[in-house]
Amino acid sequence: MAAAFQQQIFALDARFNAYRAPGNPNFKTLYIRRRSQLLRENAKFKDIETIKKYINIRSQLLQRRYGVQDNISISSSSSRARSSSKASLAVDEVSGSTKKKNDLTISENYAFTGVHHIFDQHSDEVSVVKFANNDRSKLCCASRDGTVSICDVTATPPRVSVVLEGHTDAVTDCDWSASNELVVTCGLDGALCVWDVARRRRLREARDQLAAPLLCCAFQPANNNMVIAGNARGMVEVLNVSTGIYPRGGSSILGGKVQAIACESSGRMFWAANDKGVIVSYRTSGTGALSKLRRCCVGGAVTSLSWSPWLARHPALLVSAADNSLYLFRITDREGSLSLKKRFETVHRSHSVRSTFCPIMSFRRGVCVVSGGEDACVYFLDIEGHAGQPVVNKLQGHASAVLGVSFSYDESLLASSDVSGLVIIWRRG
What we know:
Helix 1 (2-16) runs parallel beside helix 3. This protein has a four-stranded antiparallel beta sheet with strand order 1-28-27-26. A hairpin with a 4-residue loop joins strand 27 (413-418) and strand 28. Helix content is 15%, strand content 42%. By secondary structure, it is mainly beta.
């Protein structure tokens, strides 16, 4: 319970950080990092009533200092009730007994104990964050400042291992190869780059066939020599990164601006979506040739696609759309046809907000997804729970719209990024 209130204190400072020293962004970042450090150092303080009083007094002082009304004050009764339902993952503070994972409610499973670290190496929005495959230590961040950073999250202290420079405009997407040896990035400069992470150098750069900005990219899971990309002129294309050649038959016109790609684990099929709300499934051959399969439409520009086998029972596709919606589709056949299962309300209208499935689902009482939001919050939604109350937790630590979200493979860490360029690593348990 105390951990939830520590998070509220940090959220309060993060919200007012937008008004603190507006002409000095470096000071604002330094201030919020120091506040996070102080909260970690005092994490053992568990006098709940004193913490509640502190939150109320600090909120009033900050409102008077900056002349801003805190309309979504975390000290409200509804917020207190929501926060008090969050318990420590390891300890039941009421009974003092240790709970087994199977005994925890889904809210308790996703009750984060606080901020692990804050990265501020980027000067513009970080639109994408991605943990490496089966490796909780490596995190890739792609930014509109034209750089890509690789962070060592589990080092003491966490650090930026390398900043990859080579794009001449905003970087819009990134992806790890299966072995985590390579990272592919794309950007508004029309460049598709493949990087050797260990050697910290660019192995290949290929230009878009139409000289158009590239908005999304992904390694083909079964063959990392192939990269799938989408551009701002509606083309989905496959690149052979070994040769730097776009194979014959490896391009298809989807229309609009292709903003999101998601592949199934076998690599035989993937989905691409555009800013018109159109989602199309594709089949790929061993040579990289594409076959267009099925088409589906949603009510707004699609900014994110995420695939999951969903315990191998019902493969599913999670779709973030800029009509304040998060769509959950069931994949009904081998041609990638989509059947709408549920729609959730989100705060998503103008930014490229992303969402993803939580990677571990087997022992929980529900199935969760996590999504960013333009209200500066990170949301956890139970997609199999009560339809009227899907939100099981909400992280409040950013001061601007949250764009990217990524879980480590073991769910011990969650990364979230925002429009200001801040990346927060949240610690669970």
